[in-house]
Amino acid sequence: MTTRAARNIMRTLREHGDSEQAAQIARYLKTSDLEFLGVKLPGIHSAVKDQIKGLEPEELEQTMSDLWQEEVYEFRRAAIDVMERYVKRGDPDTAIQTCSDWLDRGLDTWALLDPLASNCLGQLLIRDWDNVETVLKRWQSSDNFWRRRATILPYLQLSLKRNYKRGYAEPILDALMPHLSDDEFFVAKAVGWVLRELSKREPQTVKDFLEKHRDEMQPLAVREGSKKLK
Hints:
The longest helix has 18 residues, at 110-127. The model has no long low-confidence stretch (mean pLDDT 96).
């Protein structure tokens, strides 16, 4: 049975849908076959926040599952918002298994993958480093390029100023190594994105890394990773 929170979130999002905005989002997120309601991110965040206050981890787990099973972009983006709350207090193994299941069940756009990988898996990595890193390493050779991108973006979370700690550079760069020559656009872009963010904390380290590995890297990753370097 669908949770009350999930029902209320879905009802609110449908009520605030905009057909013109939905068409624009569908054109922009052209890789996705999901239905679009035309609700912008602030509206999604608000709908979720109003409904999940005070929910226990078990209730959050069921709510995000109910939302994800619907083939509607805004509902799945709302599920990721719920997951962001769940990873702070819920069971890490359940969280990472759910993320993996979602990668196999209809995740077909960066607009869902990126917050799931960076915000959710990234926070899980900080919370349960050894177990999460082991899983991410298993995903590195996946045929699913979204899953490969998902092994990179958790390290973006580590590179952010609010989370970065001395000693993070080495595991971040190690996580990029299997993907340096990957010619899939979304993977190469992610490599460059992480390098660019890390360069704000450790510019010389990133500069040295690029000089050492430039010949094996995709040009897109090099360009993106170099943007903040002088």
